[in-house]
Prior knowledge:
six-stranded mixed β-sheet; Metallo-beta-lactamase, Chain A; binds fe (iii) ion
Amino acid sequence: MTVLQALPAFEDNYIWCYRGSEGASIVVDPGDAGPVLGAVANGLRIEAIFITHHHNDHIGGLSALRGTFTGAVFGPEEDRIPGIDCIASNGDVLQIPGFQPFHVLAVPGHTRSHIAYTDRDVLFSGDTLFSLGCGRLFEGSPEQMLASLDRLAELPDDTLLCCTHEYTLSNARFAAAVEPINPDRDRLLEDIQARRLHGRPSLPSRIGIEKACNPFLRTDFPESLSGLKQYLGFMPESRLARFTALRAWKDQFR
Ligand code: ZN
Ligand code: FE
C-alpha cells in the first residue's frame, strides 16, 4: 500500500487513506464503510477519521467503522453529522500520532460548515476544490466560496490536492469552454486520460497545477476567461462577478 491511497466508493467518490510513519492511517470522508472494511481486512489500520462535511456520501460509513479502531473521528461543528468525537474548527492544529500537524481551514460554500485539512504536503478538500473545478454552492454564497478557494490557493504549489470526487475529465470540458487555449491544461489532460484509461484515479492533483488550469482559481485574470466573455456577451468587472458567473454557467453546462 502506498502512503496515499484513494479507495473508490459509489459512482465517483474516493475515500482517501493517508498512512503515517507508525503505519496507521487517517481515513477521510468514509461515505461507504464497504471499501474501508475491505482495506482493513487487507491490513489497513485506522488511526483517525477526518470528515469534511455532512453530506451522506462523506459520512455514511461512519457508524459501521466505529468498532474497527480506537482513535477519534474529527469533523466540523455540525448537528447533521452524528458520531463526531472531536470538533475541528478553523485554525485548529490536530496532532495525530505518526503525522505532521494538520491544520483545519473553514471553507464554507458547498455547505456552510465545510472544513478542509492540510499538513502542507496534502490537502483534503472534500467537495470544495476539485481538480479543474469546484463544488456546487448548496448552502453558501459565491463570495464565501471564492474566499474559501482563495485560502486553498495560498497553500504551497506542490501540496497534493486530494478531493473527494472523480470529476476531473468532465470538469476539463468546462475548463476548455472557459479557456480554450491553455497548454498547461493540455499537458495535464494527457496525463489524466492515460491514468483513467488504466483505471487509475486522476488524483491527487497539485495546488500549483490547479492555479494554472482550474478556471475557478483564475478569476483574477479576465484574459484567461475568454469563453466566459463569449458566453455572457461581456466580461464581468469584478473577480467576484466573474466567479459568480462561472459557477452559474457550470451549474447548467452539459
Ligand atoms: Zn458534498
Ligand atoms: Fe460529495
